[in-house]
Design brief:
The chain is mostly helical and 330 residues long. Helices cover 82% and strands 2% of the residues.
């Protein structure tokens, strides 16, 4: 038990440091590519921060624990919106352009509905996993190309101002293209490695308590693998670039619902239980809809909106705990 807790603490420390390097490099990448930070967050950063979920999904599926992979992906989506964006908005309100987020918000909702429809028979077949992976890959490729073509000089000015004000490095080399790429990769590696240590420690401790793998995936593993998004969001908010956090969360959720879940199904057909179908998927759809309403009405996420998202996530965890205890007592 003590070794599990030690791994959890070391992993958390690595994630915090790696997240700081990660965001600093992402800001400079936005400058070099002349693209808005929200696009960088929605593609490059989100795909990298979902690597822990991908690793967990592959390992879990290869060991015959595919339900852990799905629980991890769905739980991470709920955590990303409820906890990550909730905490970020409570620290500092997030101004956003609702029109710019129609595509990722719509894509996230479509992916959730698609996954719900595919699993009505309580299983996710390999061919369905292939469809999800292909859909996610096409979305990220098209979205990146579309924004890359639409970039403007204003995006360079925006990124340059933030870069000069928020990013400071002891070594000038890290502000070069090669140095930025190196810092980004090192930060990503530290975040992923730290996440793996944290997840292994958390799963080991929870496993000793006799908790099912689906519940572990929805809670402990989801919280652990969502820490890169949380640290990225908090660091972004502290640096005054919260739009990077929003792009990261939306992109990470789309990746979770398509590439991560699909990859798990490619290794082995994924069986689901009725609780996931009737409780967790509807909870995810509700949270996504509430997020869309908050952004549309307020032109972003206010501190009050952040409190609402945190309250929704807390209510979800409490209800999940109640269902789990009820099932164990029967």
């Amino acid at each position: 038990m003590w070794s599990d807790l030690l791994g959890l603490l070391i992993g958390l420390a690595l994630i915090i440091q790696g997240g700081d390097w990660f965001v600093a490099a992402a800001i400079r990448i936005a400058e070099f590519l002349r693209m808005p930070r929200v696009v960088i967050g929605g593609t490059l950063v989100s795909l990298t921060t979902t690597c822990p979920e991908l690793v967990v999904s592959i390992v879990a599926s290869s060991k015959g624990e595919s339900s852990l992979a799905v629980g991890n992906a769905v739980g991470s989506c709920l955590c990303n919106v409820g906890l990550v964006l909730g905490v970020t908005a409570c620290i500092r309100p997030i101004p956003l352009d609702p029109r710019a987020l129609r595509l990722p918000l719509g894509a996230m909702l479509v992916m959730a509905l698609l996954l719900l429809g595919m699993t009505l028979d309580l299983r996710l077949a390999r061919w369905q996993g292939a469809v999800l992976v292909a859909t996610g890959a096409i979305y990220f490729l098209v979205d990146f190309i579309r924004h890359y073509r639409d970039r403007s000089p204003a995006h360079l000015v925006e990124a340059t101002v933030i870069e000069e004000a928020a990013t400071q490095s002891r070594w000038a080399w890290f502000k070069t293209r090669r140095g930025t790429a190196t810092q980004f990769l090192i930060g990503a590696a530290v975040v992923i490695g730290g996440s793996r240590l944290l997840v292994d420690g958390a799963v080991g401790a929870a496993g000793r308590l006799g908790i099912s793998t689906m519940i572990i995936g929805l809670t402990v593993v989801a919280l652990g693998t969502s820490l890169p998004e949380l640290i990225t969001a908090v660091t972004s908010s502290r640096r005054g670039v919260s739009d990077l956090a929003v792009g990261n969360v939306l992109g990470a959720n789309i990746a979770n619902l398509s590439i991560i879940v699909g990859t798990a199904a490619l290794f082995r057909e994924v069986p689901l239980d009725r609780t996931t179908q009737l409780f967790n998927f509807p909870s995810l759809l509700l949270v996504v809809l509430v997020l869309g309403i908050l952004i549309h009405r307020s032109g972003g996420i206010t501190q009050r909106g952040g409190v609402i998202l945190l309250a929704l996530y807390g209510t979800y965890l409490a209800a999940l705990l109640g269902l789990t205890l009820g099932q164990r007592s029967t």
